[in-house]
Specification:
The protein is built from 16 helices and 2 strands. By secondary structure, the chain is mainly α. The protein has 3 domains: 1-188, Up-down Bundle (Growth Hormone, Chain: A), CATH 1.20.1250.20; 201-253; 256-457, Growth Hormone, Chain: A, CATH 1.20.1250.20. A two-stranded antiparallel sheet has the order 1-2. Helix 12 packs parallel to helix 14 (355-383). Residues 14-459 form the Major facilitator superfamily (MFS) profile domain.
Length: 490
């Protein structure tokens, strides 16, 4: 049994290590969007290259995150976590030194591989190390500090872009890793490797990532309607079909098809796909809209985007407690509608937009909607499967959210007619933004309808509670391990 106490020096070192590791990935998920216009100008990149700067990272992270968690369980959580931190830092260095968009995109894909190793490992280290009496408090501190990191990310990104330059958005990860790795090796105990249970589903992970990459490429390059785009699209569909076939026939699949026998689990993942597709498109385009059209500096744009994260950080745990009493259907129906309203309010953000009257109201409504729905969504995912599969269910839901976000970033410019130079042309970008927000709002209305019709009103008795009660990320739902608390009877 784990026996490290939170108040001990070793407990504080473990908490510091996990917070530093998870902060690297969290910071990258929030600061890169703010840096995109400056990256585009400095590297003479097209809009497609900026899309890939975001999506290359998301493709490998979404495709490999389930495999990353399994590697930690098999070979030791500290070992895989440290490898992930080193890998992530090395890829970040490559991003920071990239001489052209192609190198940056390759480095971002490599960053995603590192993120798939360290992201599941940070929480798993807490679960494997702390005494059960201290575990909930340790997870609470870890998620709270992670939320603070997510909150300062856009501000920090804007400051770096305006000051030392956009390359420091990536280079900042190197000193964080230089602190994190020695502390982990010296102060964090290695968890026992789990028993060998079959072979890893490497083929499934590779097919999933390849399918995402090919379909994303086809969406981003679809404007050309070339033979290469059609061939890529067909290959992407073939890879997706092969992925489903492999997962149905392997003895130890990464994504067991029978987990979708739960109607509630299937429904909540459909809601997740809609919600995080809208969120991914919204935050990608809004960071550009504020700078390209409204004339905000990178620092001003990053600071402007803080309200949703701050609201999530302050109120997500209370939202989860309220949903325990009301059941998940009501917040999962109302939350997406609030977010949809926020996206329609963003239509007021145009040239010379006033922050207090045009931008802030929309972001406050957006944050309120996110507070309303994110915690209940996570709780519903865990409650829809057996306790023994809670970690797997959370991993699938997290990967689904990331995949939805990358598809949205790829598809929205195509659907709204953005040209390759749109981010350099304020009038053209503004026109496309005004088309994109209603599309995102419509997807959120669909999420609300799915919740109202498919989600059970009351949770099942003794279902597991999320351990991450405080959440600050605006791009994905919290990732849980299998060590979740059973709910008390109400």
């Amino acid at each position: 049994m784990p026996d490290v106490r939170l108040a001990s020096p070793k407990g504080r070192w473990i908490l510091l290590t996990t917070v530093l590791g998870s902060s690297m990935a969290l910071l990258d998920s929030t600061v890169v969007n703010v840096a995109l216009p400056r990256i585009g100008r400095d590297l003479d990149a097209s809009l497609a290259a900026l899309q890939w700067t975001v999506n290359a990272y998301m493709v490998t992270l979404a495709g490999l995150i389930l495999l990353g968690g399994s590697l930690g369980d098999r070979y030791g959580r500290r070992r895989v976590f440290v490898i992930g931190v080193i890998w992530f830092a090395a890829a970040s260095l490559m991003c920071g030194l990239a001489p052209d968009p192609n190198v940056l995109i390759i480095a971002r894909a490599l960053q995603g591989v590192g993120g798939a190793l360290l992201t599941p490992g940070s929480l798993a280290l807490i679960q494997a190390s702390f005494h059960p009496d201290d575990r909930s408090r340790a997870v609470g501190l870890w998620s709270g500090f992670g939320g603070v990191g997510a909150a300062i990310g856009p501000f920090l990104g804007g400051w770096l872009v305006e000051g030392p330059g956009w390359r420091w958005v990536f280079l900042l990860n190197v000193p964080l890793a230089l602190i994190c790795v020695p502390v982990a090796l010296r102060h964090v105990p290695e968890s026992d490797a789990g028993p060998a249970r079959g072979r890893f589903d490497v083929l499934g992970a590779v097919l999933g990532a390849v399918a995402l990459a090919l379909l994303t490429y086809a969406l981003i390059e679809a404007r050309s309607a070339s033979v290469a785009v059609w061939v890529t699209a067909v290959a992407g569909v073939a890879a997706a079909v092969a992925f489903v076939y492999v997962e149905r026939h392997r003895p130890n699949p990464m994504l067991p098809p029978d987990i979708f026998a739960s109607r509630q689990f299937t429904a909540v993942n459909l809601v997740t796909l809609c919600v995080y597709a809208a969120f991914g498109g919204f935050f990608f385009l809004t960071a550009l809209q504020l700078q390209v059209v409204a004339g905000y500096s990178p620092l001003a744009a990053g600071t402007a985007l803080l309200p949703p994260t701050i609201l999530m950080l302050l109120f997500s745990s209370r939202s989860g407690a309220l949903a325990d009493r009301t059941g998940p259907r009501l917040p999962l129906t109302i939350g997406p509608l609030l977010c949809a309203a926020a996206m329609l309010l963003m239509l007021r953000v145009g040239p010379d937009a006033n922050y207090l009257t045009d931008v802030l109201p929309a972001l406050l409504v957006m944050g309120t909607g996110m507070v309303t729905l994110v915690a209940p969504l996570t709780a519903t995912v865990l409650a829809s499967v057996d306790t023994a599969r809670a970690g797997l269910a959370s991993g699938i839901n997290n990967a689904a959210a990331r995949a939805a976000g990358l598809v949205a970033v790829a598809a929205l410019p195509l659907l709204t007619g953005m040209g390759p130079e749109a981010y350099r042309l304020p009038a053209a970008f503004n026109s496309s933004f005004d088309k994109a927000m209603p599309i995102c709002a419509a997807v959120l209305v669909l999420a609300s309808l799915l919740s109202a019709t498919l989600i059970r009103h009351r949770p099942t008795p003794d279902c597991p509670h999320p351990e991450c009660r405080t959440h600050g990320s605006i791009t994905t739902p919290p990732l849980e391990t299998g060590e979740v608390e059973p709910a008390s009877r109400g």
